Amino acid sequence: MADEQQQPTELKLDRSNLYTEETFTDLKVGMIKRMTPVKSDGSVDKTRKSVFVAHTSLMTPGGPLPLQAVIQAKDLQQAIKKFPDAMKAAMDRLAEEAKKYQEQQGDRIEKPDSRIIVPGR
């Protein structure tokens, strides 16, 4: 079984879920990307809504940490207004995930595997 080679996964774009991307930035705090749905011929798909994604970087002792979040907005003005709350929610989620990870790592250190493996059994 280990000798069997797996077939590579076919990488194929979903032609019914294409977007074009525009970036808006203040060159200081972050950026907002507007993802506009398009058809496979590149024309705007008016049957789907645009998606706004907030991006920023947090400075950590290990270097910059990228952070992003989807902003529920109908237009760019609303996305700009909601940017701070979206980034705060993303930071809160990141902090919660880090806390859970540290707890998991702490459990592994505090509760090492106490089974004894005896050769030949």
Key structural traits:
alpha+beta; 1 helix; 121 residues; 30% strand
Determine the strand fraction and express it as a percent band. Answer: 25-35%
Terminal-residue CA separation? 25 Å
Which sequence of strands runs across the widest sheet? 1-2-3-4
The low-confidence runs, each spanning 5 or more residues with pLDDT under 50, are none
Order of helix and strand elements from N to C terminus: EEEEH
- Broad shape: flat
Largest sheet: 4 strands, antiparallel
Helix fraction bin = 25-40%
Mean pLDDT: 88
Helix-and-strand structural type: alpha+beta
How many domains, as an integer?
Answer: 1
Radius of gyration: 22 Å
- Total strands: 4
Q: Count of DSSP helices?
A: 1
Topology:
Elements: E1 18-25, E2 30-38, E3 51-60, E4 63-71, H1 76-110
Antiparallel strand pairs: 1-2, 2-3, 3-4
Q: Mind explaining what this structure looks like?
A:
The chain has 121 residues and is of the alpha+beta class. It has one domain (18-110). The chain is built from one helix and four strands. The chain has one helix spanning 76-110, and strands at residues 18-25, 30-38, 51-60, 63-71. Strands 1-2-3-4 form a four-stranded antiparallel beta sheet. A hairpin with a 2-residue loop joins strand 3 (51-60) and strand 4. The longest helix has 35 residues, at 76-110. The protein is flat and about 70 Å long. The relative contact order is 0.11.
